[in-house]
Amino acid sequence: MSPNRRHAAFIASGAALALGLSAFPASAVGHQVSTSSTSGFSASTFGPGSAKHHETFHRLATYPVFQNAPAGTDPEDETVAEISAVSEDGNTLVHTDAAARRIGFLDISDPDAPQGLGSLSLAELGSEHDEPTSVAVVGHHVLVVVDSSTSFTAPSGRLDVVDLATRTRVRSIDLGGQPDSIAITHDGTRAVIAMENQRDEDVLADTGAGEEGDLPQAPAGFLQFVDLAGTDPETWQTRPVTLDVAALAAAGLDTPQDVEPEYVAINPSDTKVAVTLQENNGVAVLDVVSGALESVFSAGDVALEGVDVDDDGAIDQTGSIEAVPREPDAIGWVDDEHVATANEGDWKGGTRGWTVFDSTTGDVVWDAGTDLEELAVRVGLHNDDRAGKKGVEIEGLAVATLDGVRYAFVGSERSNFVAVYDVSDPASPRFVQVLATTNGPEGLLPVPSRNLLVVSSEEDSAEDGVRASVSVFGKGNGYRRAAGTPAFPSIVSADVRTSAGVARPIGWTALGALSADPTRRDHLWTVTDAAMSPTSILSVSTAGQRGKKAAPAVIDREIVLTEGGEPVGLDAEGIWARPSVKGRAGGFWLGVEGATGPENALVRVSASGHVQERVSLPDDVVAGLGKWGIEGVTGTVDRTGEHLFVALQRGLTSDAGVGGYARIGRYDVATGEWTWFGYPLSAPTADGDWVGLSEVTVVDRDTLAVIERDKLNGPAAALKAVYTVDLPERDPRPGQVPVLDKELAIDVLPALRATNGWTQEKLEGLTIGGDGRVYAVTDNDGVDDATGETVFLDLGKARKLFH
């Protein structure tokens, strides 16, 4: 910034405020905000006072498990984390890795910094087909449940007993079928294993009728009870237990002759074991000693109203689902009389929620209904690709008592979060918090002795930058990193009333741009990109951002874009809120990236969301564009007129011979003239990486701030920064593109890493608010090949950062 021009600083945020003009009358900005919610959630649910410090969970670390692979392993090879267990001292974590046919060991004695301890190959102990399906720890031994099946009609499996200290197998026990999950009594004297003998989804039922994958398909599943008496594994004995077909039939299960047990859990007093029969939509409860069947019941059906049911890019919460079976996967005991199920569904159902049952009668005492679908929408984790299937797909569930409070942890496989509930009253669970995870949270492991929750996430794709990981969360003051609310969510949406008068959260995803609101100091504007259609311009309140009890930013207003009277979807990558000047209407300019060069444009939009004008880039610029186009827009209005600044993400092909730079363009709205400047890009730090621009904002009359970033995420992320450039006092001659000098203003990478989660790739939004503070936001890619977590950052005072 030129010192003699510092008096003109912060035009982008302050010009309209100085003019005192209104650009956005309340009657023209879309939906009315409501403070109520049908589920009990609202934006205020995540603000100060929503949870006391002692019951708040804080993310401490995220460990990518590929870093613990054996020496010589290609780091891009698939390696996953599914089900996990912990040593009795709470310091050593063991997780299954079915993709790599091994189990992994992690040292979590310092939960802020998990360390890899290596792995044990099950394939080397058996064959290349062997996959661990579950794991448990008893005393000094790890019990690894292994599926060794080579066919569905001849399932096989074993229980490998591994010495925890030496990580060597000391015994292998044949299980007589294909196992799934294992549970151990709290006193460590018994284990129960669900022997699923799963169906082949590509063949007809044994009856020869129905659809491929239908039941029954022999052999039927059963349970294996294991007597763990004594410390010598050589003395341990197994006892198969089959479920009473007549009792199952009497309970109304579809195909009781083929139950396929899925998940087992043991009650707090070590007297009962509950097992889900997912494909049969049932739950059975047995005596943990004798194996006698005590009760069995259908999990029942649920119909839903007010959810998104179409994967069409729009977040439409007016859809409905006819009554479908819950088909529970994971199960946990709330107390000795109640069980909770994660209703993932399989082939007939999936109700997008979780349920608490009376374990004796099977009566439903509480059901989540649409709560978790609404939660995903509110925190930006709605996965539209799954809307037409099983939505948030609740698969994992664990119940445990931490600091005297009974909690249920409920995991969404497709929206990458864990919801935390206080279930002290089984008939009235109280939502406490939502935790962001990496992709596909599968194993939820509370560690009560250390007030920890460990989440194992299974989805792994090096090509997409999505890696399986183990996330560690700590509860209470002992793990509090700062006063106030948790780091996630950092932005949520408020409610609006639908046409039917029902309160629903504003739907949002993929925020790739920011602009100051020219009339309100505590508000910003953002816009959704191509991940959502139609495009929505969103108002963001930052009023609760500061102070010791900071609250998330709140999306409190939505404007749906229309063109020719119809909703329209644009790949909006930049937004600038225009002030009203001398009778000229306000509204917005959007920077729209096209699939091809000619489709890149500046789009002027009215305050009520109507597209009014499209401005194409110059022909010579269009000719040099590849697939990377407009990534940001900002502007100024002063005595010389209205000018827009546009950031192009990458260099033009025509610029390739003159150095590695991207282009920043200035557009004179009155004359239609373009002036271009070069921005020198940093060199990539890794093979296959590239560096580009993703936002531009005005600092003062001659200074711009831009986001420069690489395309890397997670531990590989190396460049997420804000630089400033000073524009020359004289414009270049036509056809010339002077390269500007840049100066580092803000290294944003530390702030992104401070979330202790997966470091986000797409730092894409930046602005100086009317309050003089610098805000930034990450684009979550619509939860598509990304964790979906949105990080909204208050980076501090602009006058201190841009000096």
Automatic annotation (TrEMBL):
Residues 507-781 form the Phytase-like domain. Keywords: Signal. Residues 80-311 form the Choice-of-anchor I domain. It comes from the Bacteria. The keyword Hydrolase does not apply. Residues 1-28 form the signal peptide. The keyword Disulfide bond does not apply. This is Esterase-like activity of phytase family protein. It comes from Promicromonospora aerolata.
